[in-house]
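Lab notebook, bench 4. Still working through the backlog of constructs that have no structural model yet. Next entry is a single chain of 765 residues. Request: give me the structure tokens for it.
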Amino acid sequence: MAKKKKVDQIRELYNLSNNWTRSQWQYINQKGYEFAHDEQLSHEEKSALQNQGMPTFTINRILPVVEMLNFYATANSPRWQAIGVDGSDSDVAAVFSDLSDYIWNLSDGSALYSNAINDAITKSIGYVLVTVDTDKDNGMGEVILRQPEPFDIYVDPKCRDMMFKDASYILIRKVLPKSHIVKLFPQYKRKINAASSIEGDDSYSERSISDKEQKLFLRDDSTAEDMGVDSSGEHESTLELFELYEKIKISYVNVFYRIPPDKEQLKAIQQQVQVRMKEMAAEMEVQLMEQNKQMQQAVQEGKMIPERYELEMKKAQDMMQNQLQAAEQEYMSKLQAEASRIENNVITEKEYKILIKDKSFQDSIVDVVQFYGTRIQQTISAGDKLLSEVVYPENVVDYPLIPFHYKWTGTPFPVSAVAPLVGKQREINKSHQIMVHNASLGSSLRWLYEEGSIDPDQWEQYSSSPGALLSVRPGHEKPTPIMPAPLSNAFFSIVQQGKADMEYLAGIYSSMQGDTQQQHETFRGMLALDEYGTRRIKQWMKHSIEPALRQLGKVIMQISQSVYTANKRFRIIQPSAIQEEREQELNIPIYNDMGQAIGKSMDYSSAKFDVRIVAGSTLPVNRWAYLAELKELLQFGVIDDIAVLAETDVRNKEQIAKRKSLYAKLQGQLGQLQESLEDKDGTIETLERQLVQAGIKGKVMQAEMEITKKKEEVKGDLKDSYRSTEAKQKVLQNVISNEVDSTRKDLSRELQFAKKELQSNNKNK
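Model written out:
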């Protein structure tokens, strides 16, 4: 019964959303979409032109506008950055950019994003759906992106938030064959096959629109039912498939509870209490002894009888024992309270009602705070059967559907870029058709003739042939050509003005599309023209597309944190980087010595960080201007040549970077070797000078010692020959003098030789 009620509720929400305002919005934007894709003439218009002999061609001026707007918005893939809430999450937050690129590439994000922007330009809004493919990665699941059809999505009409955050529901409706739905949800095959179509009251307000207009945008359910063909070749019945996303309120309880100390802490507390009690007992024993002494003295002096003495002593002992016990309990409780910690945990009210039945849990509770949290619930139904009803994890608080508006109106019905151009496109088409028709009439004349004067078949066949001889029956007036009226110059002006008006309305000018006649002569002038010409586009990107991309990054973060909870390794491909491929790893398990998992590093699921879009990351970059800017930064020394190489399209740049890095490393090593050699050369020179000086000093000292020795020997000889003759004394003195002179000359020569050798070494260096 509840399931049937839910299916009926989904139907009611669909009828509520499918109102007159939405039908008008869908009709206008469907018309714009058709004009952009060169479906600019209805069947009735083509028939009328053909009956009048007029051409039915169109000159599509809208498609180039769509293509240029799409190019500016999708020239590059978006880049997200994550900032950790605290320091411990910074490393995990840094990996989010790589993870978002991984999800983007896994989902073929470039093509998907381009289609969503194309929908925003032509249909006023495009969508990206963040979902989970549970079958990927061997059942571990992968976060992927999808691009649903905008006209299949129905949003709460009362929504006023640009990202639909305040919408109470978002509904996706598709009409599909049963076999297709079974392929989407094979686990519900039995329910799908047993489901029957609901004959709903499709009393849309657009019924009042003419049948001609309805054919342009309304889905014919009877035709849709003939879409499917089963294996036998017969037509297969179809079902309405609804995916309902709604925000629900769930009651939560924030429980604050006390965690008592563990066994080790209790053991330490008991030891502290014992030490403290021993100190107190010792102090009280001293007091008791003093009291005992005073009462004994009182008994001796007759001031107290012995019976009173015994009674008072017993009371004092009992009191001391009671005080010790009370102090022990008080001190124990105090230390346990200090060792205990207060923690809180958020659980659902349902979980709280189960846990509160436990007495130990009751005793540990300090405080309880009840509140309501927002959760996203997904409900899927096919026909009259409810297939599934799933509540998203707690951290997912935003809708997985992200809208990309062209021009937000404050409602779920924005304005497209194409809608204002439809009238001008009709004007240009009509002007061209008239001019071509007029030129055709000028080259193929019409004739006014008297009945019976000519052979009509002959004139019809040969009247436009060069050099033809056409007969006229005698007695009749010859035929008179009917010349077309001269075409007014206003038609040519209308075409040119219409082209200029379309450029003005769209903000896409001829120079932006490569029109050389509109290009500026100088490079700086071209850059300035590009800057001024793209301001409207940049404003659209800043206020419409980048907020949507920022919301997309947030939703990817929320859903990926609930999916990637186990150890995961993924590869990132970056074609523009030096290192085109690299691997990242999340939720890396940490094991103890026993091989048991005790935690994990790079814990992605529990990390807290904020996500933002890199402003202007999707806009096109003027390669020449960018490279010129990099060249200037290189000259100023702000960046190195490797950074410049990474931004170029040079082939094999990774190998080039490796070679340059190796060359720079070798150069550094060579410089260090040169410095080391210079240091060693200086040390050698110092040592050589020291050795030379030490050698000279040694030789001088040795010579002086020899002179002194010889003097002493001579003095000894003189003492021995004291009584010799004077002649002998003079001879001996001459010998001594010659010896001294010879020694001094030898020393002088050695000194000169040492100086020359030192000078020669310095010159060679």
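Notes after review: Residues 254-369 form one domain. The first helix runs from residue 2 to 17. Flag for follow-up if needed.
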